[in-house]
């Protein structure tokens, strides 16, 4: 082997953006750890160690964890609701890890944006764009995000998912339901 052969063998990720490399490695940890049956708390320690070694944020971790979990769900010959039925328990299983990555509203809004971007990626849109409303509700029910975080995403014209997801009838219905729920909470507070 010449020295140029060695350089070519090491080159596949040399030009990779550092964030893309971080996301790729963490996503691989999620996928291989989940397939291997590793405990999510142990996987979180591994992810957290790598996060600190790479000087990354928890939002960066979420940018790998959430798509990694969605990628674990088989899509072939499945209806949207069958996919959702497989995804929900996966997200519930990993909820403790996601919550450990949430330090505040920055990460909460990032969760909405990451899920929206994932659902609109060309490789995922056929399956996931119609499920975004349900995935968003799962994230809300698991207390990963609040109404305010979702409304902040809705109001940000530059956020992933604008305008297609915001104008989706099912998403719009969910947003209206949240507004009604938020108003009833305000009325309860007034009493």
TrEMBL record:
<dbReference type="GO" id="GO:0005085">
    <property type="term" value="F:guanyl-nucleotide exchange factor activity"/>
</dbReference>
<dbReference type="GO" id="GO:0005851">
    <property type="term" value="C:eukaryotic translation initiation factor 2B complex"/>
</dbReference>
<dbReference type="Pfam" id="PF02020">
    <property type="entry name" value="W2"/>
</dbReference>
<dbReference type="GO" id="GO:0031369">
    <property type="term" value="F:translation initiation factor binding"/>
</dbReference>
<dbReference type="GO" id="GO:0003743">
    <property type="term" value="F:translation initiation factor activity"/>
</dbReference>
<dbReference type="InterPro" id="IPR051956">
    <property type="entry name" value="eIF2B_epsilon"/>
</dbReference>
<feature type="domain" description="W2">
    <location>
        <begin position="3"/>
        <end position="188"/>
    </location>
</feature>
<protein>
    <recommendedName>
        <fullName>W2 domain-containing protein</fullName>
    </recommendedName>
</protein>
<dbReference type="InterPro" id="IPR003307">
    <property type="entry name" value="W2_domain"/>
</dbReference>
<dbReference type="InterPro" id="IPR016024">
    <property type="entry name" value="ARM-type_fold"/>
</dbReference>
<dbReference type="InterPro" id="IPR044123">
    <property type="entry name" value="W2_eIF2B_epsilon"/>
</dbReference>
């Amino acid at each position: 082997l010449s020295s140029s052969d060695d350089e070519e063998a090491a080159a596949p990720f040399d030009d990779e953006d550092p964030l893309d490399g971080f996301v790729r490695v963490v996503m691989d940890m999620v996928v291989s750890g989940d397939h291997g049956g590793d405990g999510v708390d142990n996987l979180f320690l591994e992810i957290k160690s790598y996060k600190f070694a790479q000087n990354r944020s928890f939002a960066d971790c979420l940018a790998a964890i959430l798509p990694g979990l969605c990628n674990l769900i088989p899509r072939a010959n499945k209806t949207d609701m069958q996919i959702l039925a497989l995804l929900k328990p996966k997200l519930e299983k990993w909820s403790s890890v996601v919550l450990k990555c949430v330090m505040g509203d920055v990460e909460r809004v990032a969760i909405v944006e990451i899920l929206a971007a994932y659902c609109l990626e060309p490789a995922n849109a056929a399956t996931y764009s119609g499920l975004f409303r349900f995935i968003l509700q799962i994230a809300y029910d698991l207390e990963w995000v609040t109404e305010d975080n979702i409304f902040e995403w809705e109001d940000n014209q530059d956020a992933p998912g604008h305008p297609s997801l915001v104008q989706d009838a099912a998403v719009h219905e969910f947003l209206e339901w949240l507004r009604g729920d938020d108003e009833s909470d305000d009325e309860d507070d007034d009493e």
